[in-house]
Amino acid sequence: MSEFIQSEFLQALPPRQATPNLTLTRVPIDPTLSFELWTPKWTPRLREFSPVELNLLECDRSRVNRILSKLTWLMGAICVPEDEFGVGDCQPIYDWDAVLEFVTREGRCVNPIVTRVGFNPQTIIPIYDRNRKQEGIIPPQAWEISPPHWSIIFDDLIPGEDGFQLKQSGDWISVEIWTGKPIRREVRNKLPRPAKSRGLGF
């Protein structure tokens, strides 16, 4: 039986020693399939990781990149820099190496590494004008159906003479793999009210 992603790539590299500052997370691919990912436990007090933990992230990165490169090849990645808003007009990138180049350039990363992947189910969200500050109080200018997608977070695994150093990316960028294109409808009039039932006593 052919597999889109081979089963041996779904499990994360096991650590040889304790890694208390890393969490093993599972990322769904479809209803029956998921892959594992080592995620740093970033806290205001925790900014350093042990050499064992950093080496584990480095050794396991090729496996994670292989999985995400397959998903990117199939569906394309939407990459949005800090000074842009929305994904509706963005053209997908189907080459994972080009995605990494985008993160290096726009995220100002030396050696970007995927440390978190979140799967977001389909949602209906309100769209407000960026200059309007009363979100939730005034009616939105549009509604958008956001299809299921994966949000990918990168950190910077910087090599040095004494090993690696992990830093959180300082610049905001968005890298997402979408299963479809968002659909947006502008609000021009009030939404129609449901018609009253007749002859049913309610």
The overall average pLDDT, rounded, is 86
Structural class: alpha+beta
Question: What percentage of residues falls in helices of 4 or more residues?
Answer: 10-25%
Order of helices and strands: EEHEHEEEEEEE
Uncertain segments of ≥5 residues (pLDDT<50)? none
According to DSSP, the number of beta strands is 10
Instruction: Identify the overall geometry.
Output: globular
What percent of residues are in strands?
A: 25-35%
Cα end-to-end separation: 56 Å
Number of DSSP helices?
2
Total domain modules: 1
Largest sheet: 5 strands, antiparallel
Our Rg estimate from Cα atoms comes to 21 Å
Describe the protein's architecture and organization.
The structure is a single chain. This protein is of the alpha+beta class. The protein has one domain (7-186). The protein is built from 2 helices and 10 strands. Strands 3, 4, 7, 8 and 9 form a 5-stranded antiparallel sheet that branches. The chain has a 3-stranded antiparallel sheet with strand order 5-6-10, with no helix packed on it. A hairpin with a 2-residue loop joins strand 7 (149-160) and strand 8.
What's this entry about, in short?
This protein is of the alpha+beta class and 202 residues long. 18% of the residues lie in helices and 33% in strands. Strand 1 (22-30) and strand 2 (33-40) form a beta hairpin.
